[in-house]
Amino acid sequence: MKKFVADLHIHTCLSPCAELDMTPRRIINAAVDRGLDIIAITDHNSAENTGIAVKIGRERGITVLPSMEVTSYEEAHILALFGSMENIIKLQEIIYGSLSGVNDAKAFGYQLKVNEDDEILEFNDRLLIGATNLFVKDTVNIIRSLGGLAVASHIDRGSFSVLSQLGFIPDGVRFDALEISYNTEIRQAESIFSGYRHIPLITSSDAHHLDDIGRRTTSFFLEEASFDEIARAFNGEGQRRIELSNGVMG
Length: 250
Ligand SMILES: [Zn+2]
Ligand SMILES: [Zn+2]
What we know:
Blueprint: E1 2-10, H1 24-33, E2 38-44, H2 50-60, E3 63-71, E4 77-81, H3 85-97, H4 105-108, E5 112-114, E6 120-123, H5 136-145, E7 149-152, H6 162-166, E8 177-180, H7 186-192, E9 201-203, E10 217-222, H8 227-234, E11 241-245
Parallel strand pairs: 1-2, 2-3, 7-8, 8-9
Antiparallel strand pairs: 1-10, 3-4, 4-7, 5-6, 10-11
Helix pairs in contact: 1-2
This protein binds zinc ion (ZN) (2 copies).
């Protein structure tokens, strides 16, 4: 098995709360500079910048998972990790159909779809910061039925997490992994969440600024840097292992 360093939670300039210089090109430059092998592009309720990120990633020799951070009806954030554009586009159609409202760029920030030269193609005017009308249970089922991996975002945070919004992980909801944020030290998190030891833990940066990328990483010991291999690691198949680290900068 080989070690691959991953940061599976990065927002681009499409997320209203992210810095405008978070273009796929600059994110991938930063990720390559910091020695990351795998990243996931996880904008709020949209995947419009993932296609270009996958393309640039291929050119630069880094694996980019086209992904999304979905907001459930209960305002819990859920990472949807995918291995192909085809399936993330299907998820995007469902999410767009479940999301209402128009973005107020002055209040929440601009939502930029860009090309590989960092030029603006479109201002997305959907209320991406809003909640969908999908319950946590439905969101997880949809992600998994499309062949994606469902990860409960930043479960240690006091807001916008499955645990902060519901208090527990409901029966019958099958997350592939749970994510610990930058705010909680890893050993402490492993102890706090030891009740969920049967579900793999990961940690990621939740980057909204270029400097954030890689501040938390998860090392995967896999045969190759691919979505399928990450899925097998979450399932505990073979000798695959997952190790949390304070990040390439920490
Ligand atoms: Zn979040
Ligand atoms: Zn996020």
